[in-house]
Specification:
Two copies of one chain form a homodimer. Chain A is mostly helical and 224 residues long. Chain A folds into two domains: 58 residues, Orthogonal Bundle (Arc Repressor Mutant, subunit A), CATH 1.10.10.60; 140 residues, Tetracycline Repressor, domain 2 (Orthogonal Bundle). Helix content of chain A is 66%, strand content 0%. Chain A is elongated and about 60 Å long. In chain A, 42% of the residues are buried. Chain A binds a DNA duplex (30 and 30 nucleotides) through helix 2 and helix 3.
Chain lengths: 224, 224
DNA sequence: ACTTGACCGTACCGTACGTTACGGTTCGGC
DNA sequence: GCCGAACCGTAACGTACGGTACGGTCAAGT
């Protein structure tokens, strides 16, 4: 028997294939219909009964939580290992992170998911926003931190606080993209544009924190 | 008689004082309860009848639209006139814009309003997201553009495209603040932090686009 | 063949909420 | 003092949807 996915709060058993099909249905429904994310619609789309939904996921919130967690688990891209860390490798790593992040936040799935989580954050219940944050913004922060630290140790980067440096990078990459997309702006990012923006953001970040411009260190954290 | 506010789509008559009180009630309810933004609750909070709400605003969407437009109209801060444009004045202008923007996006009102608009953008109806975008992100872009252009004409700034330069500034200022707040992260920005972040973002922007660092021009738009 | 259990499809229930209707009150104009 | 318009408070209606119950089907085990 596939135990209820939501026995506790953080207990995350792997969903079965059939259950994954249900989550896929939730996701597709979220992306296509946006609004009509009703239990009946999910059951119809997934060709399963509502009773099964409730048995597997407890309630509507459990289903949404499971969907968010499942999708979040799929997003993780491969970690960038620090090989011979020269400036070219570092730049490529940063560009890779930037391009990956832009791809994620501009994908219809991410947009729908973030809209859902934001709507949920308005009401207090069930921490969808926290899950999305932990697996999006904070996950990429944790994955990028070692790269930045390694860059600093190799003398390629200068900054005081890795977190602050990351947030600068985050801002340079994302700019107004996510908020515009969430608010329904018809902004399309082609693959080429993503690569171009990733390169631009990386160059800007290196201009601020790269070792080449040694006189810019203080920009990492002005003395309050 | 106070005509219905939503006779057409873009026809925006000024609300009367009493109507403003209603909109204020909507806003406060949105901020406090987040979720429970029901017509009955609005009527109760505003001490008016539901019938009056429907007479004035047509339907729920009309009420929300009127609220968003009314709030948007209040946000406009004074435009910064270009006096003697030296580098100190320019820096102060940029810092002022940054601090103002950070104050806006971190205010409970803005958070609630953006959540509402984002939730609405999921369903296709009634362009709340467009209104918020037009009066937020794009309005500040339009107001900042002349400052940037003047800075360039005065030889204080270097960039190819004002829009691109603005988006860089936007990213440096906002970073991850808005998305984190929208997703319910307990991030508090004190007045001092806002000022510090505004200064940091301004310094970073000037490091990228300021005339002092003449070798960084190409960062405004790398050649694909 | 019979039982068991997982599951589908559908009908059903209760509630929340948008919307409408209506009686009562206040107030400006005559 | 009377009338009508604007408005308040509340009740009522219809619907959408979360959640539950139940009968029917299929497959596996005995």
């Amino acid at each position: 028997m596939a135990a209820t996915l939501k026995t506790h709060d953080s207990e995350t058993e792997e969903p079965t294939a059939r259950q994954e099909a249900v989550l896929e249905a939730v996701l597709s429904l979220m992306v296509e219909e946006g609004d009509q994310l009703t239990m009946a619609a999910v059951a119809r789309r997934a060709s399963c009964s509502k009773e099964t939904l409730y048995k597997w996921f407890g309630d509507r919130d459990g289903l949404l939580t499971a969907t968010v967690q499942w999708q979040a688990a799929r997003v993780r891209a491969g970690a960038y290992d620090r090989q011979s860390l020269d400036i070219a490798t570092l730049r490529d790593s940063l560009k890779g992170f930037a391009a990956n992040w832009l791809s994620v936040i501009s994908s219809p799935t991410s947009i729908a998911l973030n809209r859902l989580a934001i709507g949920h954050a308005a009401s207090r219940k069930s921490n969808l926003g926290g899950i999305v944050l932990a697996n999006g913004r904070f996950a990429i922060g944790e994955r990028l931190r070692p790269v930045l630290e390694a860059g600093r140790e190799a003398g390629l980067l200068h900054f005081d606080d890795a977190e602050t440096a990351f947030r600068t990078f985050f801002g340079l990459v994302g700019r107004d993209v996510q908020i515009r997309l969430l608010l329904g702006d018809a902004l399309v990012l082609s693959r080429a544009e993503i690569m171009r923006d990733a390169a631009r953001a990386t160059d800007q970040f290196l201009a601020l924190h790269g070792a080449a411009t040694s006189s810019k260190d203080d920009l990492a954290g002005p003395k309050a």
